[in-house]
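To whoever is on call:

I kicked off a structure prediction for a single chain this morning and the downstream step that reads the tokens threw a length-mismatch warning. I double-checked the sequence; it's 149 residues and nothing unusual in it as far as I can see. Pasting both halves so you can look.
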Amino acid sequence: MALAIADREGPSSQWIWFSSFVCSGATEVATVPIDVCKVRLQVQSSSAVGSTGGPQYRGMVDTMAKIVRNEGAASLYKGAAPAVIRQCCYTSIAMMLFPRIKSAISDNEEAGFGTRLLAGGTAGAIGIAVRPLHCGPGTACYSVLVHCH
């Protein structure tokens, strides 16, 4: 079955779903190492000290360098699978709903800022509410994988 990229009314639903799924997955893969470093910096406490008696990590670059040196580069991608699944589900749902919600709110093709804001907020809220793995096993798996060093 071929994906219809566009018809007279714009991109097809299948194309919106496919492109948002792929693009959000690629973006998540690119940003997982930054998120891993951010989480490591957030969870370090004053009791988690290095050999010098200070914090183990001192900024993003230092955190990334120490993770690669001590655990290997693959450790920067701990938790990537559940994070990618979670983000792909949320983004594809929100992107599929946005034009429909915008059309339901306003018949005007050139919707104003308020209409787009309301439609985007509503689509995002629904995407968060219905996406699988949001507050369940996906988030738990991601947290465990990122925090384990």
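Update from on-call: the warning came from a stale cache, not from the record. Cleared it. Sanity check on the structure: The helical segments are 13-43, 60-71, 80-105, 113-130, 137-147.
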